[in-house]
Amino acid sequence: MTTxxxxxxxxxxxxxxxxxxxxxxxxxxxxxxxxxxxxxxxxGACDDVAAIRLYQAEFSLEAVR
Length: 65
Description:
Layout: H1 2-9, H2 13-43, H3 50-64
């Protein structure tokens, strides 16, 4: 009976594998987030009138159709 209690209190192989996989995925996503922020920072500040120009270009394209 002691053996069955000891075995049931230990995490199963599946639980251990799942926890390991989740940790690995978190690590990969954290590294990707850092890389993404670095790319955004390297791109510089956003042009304040870019959205207006894009809207005007889209409007002009629709008018030509």
